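debug: dumping io for the single-chain case to check the tokenizer round-trip. Nothing else runs in this session.
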Amino acid sequence: MSNGPSTRAPTSKDITHKTSWIVFITQVILVIFTAPYRRTFKLYTWKPLRDIRAADGDRKLLVARVKDWKADKYQELQSVQVAASFCAGATLATLSWSKFENPIWAADALWFSSLICSIWAVITSIQTKSILDDLPNKDQLNSSLPEIELKRMRRVILRYKKRPGINHWIMLFIWQFPSMTMSYAWCTFLSGLTVYVCTPFIRNDPWSNRSKIAITYLSVGTVGLFTYVFSSGFVYAGEKDYERSVASTRTNTNDMESALIDSTISARSAEGTRQQQPSEPNNPVEQLRNRGLLSSGTEERQDSERTKKQLLY
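debug: decoded output
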């Protein structure tokens, strides 16, 4: 008999609680890392791939979703290439500034980080386009697409056969990597520019024209930052309203379909009941005759002939 403390096996409630915390922490990390490009990540990577996963088994729906996603992804990658190229040019122009004899190292570090992010954004967007080129083109994406080609297309996009694994999440990271690096390039560029302009305040230098430039820069930058934050909040609120509207519309549609099905079943059952019951004649004379309240003309004639015969005999 053991004297040690007994260990209690984890219950389903404990596992569910632990899983909910893991999901919550994962969502928080995802929100933090995708904050600069959250809408792009959601519209062009996260939601489309989730819909493609959900369309497994529905051939027509899968082809339609892949067709729309491929066109949207092409436009996203083209925008990334333009924005990243412009950011790389701006960074190269600022790296040549040498107004300060001993500038703060953080500004140069942020600018070099911006430059490398811009370069990787352009390179990976070209590679991602090559992956999209391996998919069937717009004319081939129709209901006549062979089954083996459909499976290959789904495997290229999602990188799993039965259930999502590590390869699927790596592929999801690859699909969103160009937008991520482009967004980080602009964030690090603006951060480096802010550090560079605000160097007199960071070093507590005497008041000079550079201090006035820094105040003007911070004033304009603060207005732009608050505008960006408020617009992001309005965009997020609009997305939530749209999701609630879609969910409400879907619920109402399902309720209407259920009510229609119930009414159809009730009508059919009532029709079957009427068919099983004997039909009554619509003529009131026939109804009285069936109930024995009115005799037919043939019976009356037979009775009169029978009476005549009795009188003769």
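debug: round-trip ok. The radius of gyration is 39 Å.
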